[in-house]
Structure prediction request, 209 residues.
Amino acid sequence: MIKKLRVKPLSLLEKVFFLDFLRGLRVTIKNAFKPTITTHYPYQRLTPPKRFRGFFGHKVVDGTEPQPAFYEWVNRYNIKVEYGKSRCVVCMRCKRACPVPQLFEIEGKKLPDGKRVVSVFNMNLLLCTYCGFCVDACPVDCLYQTDLHETASYSRKDAVLTLEVLERIGREWQRRREREPDLIWPPEEERLKLWGENGLKLPETQRGK
Ligand code: SF4
Ligand code: SF4
Prediction:
């Protein structure tokens, strides 16, 4: 059944003085003088929340690994632990959890002492949906999504994160944000105290709001 909408006809006063037009203009003028809530990217950049799900990183061994889970997995897979290197135990759980597993290329290698280490860990982000399943599946809190979100590159090759790049991103993230309270949006003063002036920060116009 087609329902016909009845449009209320304009009164003579509304027709003569364009009252609807003036009502619309009032909304425009009211908003024209309000403070801007958008940012002038890329000249102004917001700090994403700590839980932002951006570019990936590998957290490295630095004494803050989940205990005792980390060493249980290390023993299970006979992994050699090296300070400052990836926590990965080559369990493949991230790859198995991924809806597009072919984007991962993971290999381990055996050392002369019989222990193993991760030797290849490539992630082709051109195929990634940033769903975070791989991060949830990692049993040793190694694979992580950081706050980096400017991921454009000029070549397909640059869209593949290698083990070296993942470790560098993870190390940097641990240095910048590991100690930050796990709030969705910490106060700017608190963030500046933790980050110093090195990281991304709210633009002047957005401070204290
Ligand atoms: S975020 Fe999702 S799609 Fe991307 S690698 Fe992880 S599991 Fe796969
Ligand atoms: S789930 Fe974690 S430990 Fe296992 S292979 Fe992936 S990154 Fe490495």
